[in-house]
Amino acid sequence: MKPIGETTVLITGASRGIGAAIATRFAKEGFRIVIHYAQSHEAANEVARRCMGYGSDVMTISADLRSNEQLKRMRDKLEAEGFIPDILINNAGVAYYGLFTDVTEEQWDECMAVNLKGAFLCTQLFAPQMIRQRYGRIINVSSVWGITGASCEVIYSTAKGGINAFTKALAKELAPSGITVNAVAPGAVETEMIDHLDADERYALQEEIPLGRLGSPEEVASLVYYLALPESGYLTGQVISPNGGWQA
């Protein structure tokens, strides 16, 4: 592994929520950070300023995860700037909440394209460099619903279940090259993805969680950080769910 100050981490969807917390966690430790975002330019810049406050080298970059062409341009730009990732964190995702019978084909395509295809395309673009250097970490941010499934979140659960299978299969393929592939599948975390819940629904949700509270983005980020360390080199193909005992 390179020295920490020369090791680059790319986090997709890092302008807010769990992605922003992950970027900040790595910046605190001195890693070089690439903050990917789709449209939230100012939010991404705010995360970048926070990371630079810890002395980290930071680059922000925008690309549509659904577009292989845009992602290739992103890779070329990162390569030109010397920011090719040694650690890839596929965090970006979109949620859909509603009855399965109301799901449109367009909503299905959007959910699969961002949550599943985006992770596939990014990994396919950046894994070759990891293979050449015989070292790398790929960490996919999934969801507890990818393990257990959730009523009224069928297409989101399906996409995250795909991420979990992708993680397990890819881990076996890349292990001989010294690359680990793991997934973090959070339970209920205090982010915009649960903004659709009203106060009563949030209270009922917390009552179901043995720890009695929602998780924080920082707690998820700490687990992601551990999986990226050299010390986690014997841990691969795993889907780990920090969920407060909710779906244990």
Task: Describe this structure as you would to a colleague.
The chain is α/β, with parallel strands linked by helices and 248 residues long. Helix content is 46%, strand content 13%. The protein contains eight helices and seven strands; from the N terminus they run E-H-E-H-E-H-E-H-E-H-H-E-H-H-E. The protein has helices at residues 17-28, 41-52, 68-81, 105-133, 145-148, 154-174, 199-208, 217-228, and strands spanning 8-11, 32-37, 58-62, 87-90, 136-141, 179-184, 239-240. It has a seven-stranded parallel sheet with strand order 3-2-1-4-5-6-7, sandwiched between helices. Strand 2, helix 2 (41-52) and strand 3 form a beta-alpha-beta unit. Helix 1 (17-28) runs parallel beside helix 2. 43% of the residues are buried.
Summarize the topology.
Elements: E1 8-11, H1 17-28, E2 32-37, H2 41-52, E3 58-62, H3 68-81, E4 87-90, H4 105-133, E5 136-141, H5 145-148, H6 154-174, E6 179-184, H7 199-208, H8 217-228, E7 239-240
Parallel strand pairs: 1-2, 1-4, 2-3, 4-5, 5-6, 6-7
Helix pairs in contact: 1-2, 1-8, 3-4, 4-6
Structural class: alpha/beta
* Strand order in the largest sheet: 3-2-1-4-5-6-7
Helix content: 40-55%
The mean pLDDT is: 94
Shape: globular
Rg calculated over all Cα atoms? 17 Å
Strand content: 5-15%
What is the end-to-end distance?
Answer: 34 Å
Number of strands: 7
**What's the helix-strand series?**
EHEHEHEHEHHEHHE
Biggest sheet overview: 7 strands, parallel
Low-confidence stretches: none
The number of helical elements comes to 8
